[in-house]
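JOB MANIFEST
job_type = single_chain_structure
chain_count = 1
residues = 469
[input]
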Amino acid sequence: MHWAADQLDGSNGSVGLLGGSYLGLNQIFSQGHIGANTPVKAMIPECAGAEFYRETYFSGGMPTQTANFPRNLGSIVGPRAGVFGAPLAEDIQKGGDAAYDRDFWKSRTAGNYAEAIADAGVPALLWTSWDDIYTESAQSMYASLQNAYFDRPTDAPMKPGQPTTNRYQIIVSPGGHCAGVNTATELEWMDTWLKGKSTRFSEAAATPMHLYQQGSGTWINTSNYPMVQHYTPYYLNASGKMSKSRPGRHAGSDSLRFTQPSESGGTLTYTTGPLKQGATIAGPISATIHASSSSTNLNLIARLESVAPDGTATRISSGSLVASLRKLDAGRSWVDKSGTPVRPYGTFTGDDYLTPGKAYELDVAMSPDVTQILPGHSLRLVLSSQMQASVCSAGLGKDPCFPTDPQLKTLPGEYTIAHNASNPSAINLPLLPYECFAPSGGTAQQPASLTGDPGQGSHGNPCDNRLTP
């Protein structure tokens, strides 16, 4: 960076950083180390986020499709990387240190540098997508940078009405890893901070989050992550139903086997009645499931779907948890004003195996989303114990695909999902009224505007979820 600023012919001394995935993370690590005496005046870490362990390489403690990446480092990156990748993959598979969130992953946690980047005053445009392997951690990185800029704890959720700066913004596009990145928009960011031009970004201090709203195909502009302060639990009930009513004393339980979801007993579904007025889901999602196993462990996968009147189901979000890794870091887990889990944050440092037959409360972190639920559509929670094997061959992904050797020994068994007064299981939704966010960014592939009503104001605002019917 100093070479580019001070020795490269024609340089004016200001450096901009650009790149996605591996190259996006390198920006964060590099600027985090260089400190305040930096020539970097702007950066765009695309499809990168605050963490590697959660969401990217592991889902709830089980390796994802991204575990295929270190196995192929030699052919993708080069022979030196291959020598590094093969032992890493082997250690994870055997349940060694790298299978847990210990020193190996903690030393590679990009979020640790949010405060250093903010202290150096380096503006950063984060760019992810709803099916990226960094969907949640990119938004958490945005919150960390905003918090750091205003001298708040970087691990905390943003507060309602918290001031925001245009120096740290995020775009969330539709699609997968590094999808939707637009060169013209990136040049506009560089013009803002390298050339001091007045651009759309310079005017977006009140709405630094630019999000593609799924279901409506519109862009919205808002400010705080998380976006909802009062979550709505939908409780699992008998006969595959789900509602806002807590289960009664005599409600029961359902059985789930550790098997492929296409096999008998491999899937459970719980569905609401039609949402007559529609709804908006906005932000991180979680599920609180009370479950037991005939063995000493279990794996739970939760998927949320929107179901049209004709039965067509569209995935909204998913997440998973290996029960022996259920312990939460209370200081980093987010809850709403009622104590409902918003973003459960597991420690993932070691296994605490189950007592067979005993019910445990499992808080499953699910991917965040912004989706408009059309009037008349229903919501469905699908529980399973394994991913369909056919989806696990991808080079990157965030589904729990590859159990480690210790997990393969302890996960098989019969699981019981409880839904009664003593053990109420639920999915916790960031629910807002239908069409509460103004479609201020238009409907194109890129947001046409970066400003608008943030939709998170005081009582009476169209997006205040206290108005949710």
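[summary]
Residues 233 and 407 are 30 Å apart (CA to CA).
The domain at 2-53+108-225+436-467 is CATH 3.40.50 (Rossmann fold).
exit_status = 0
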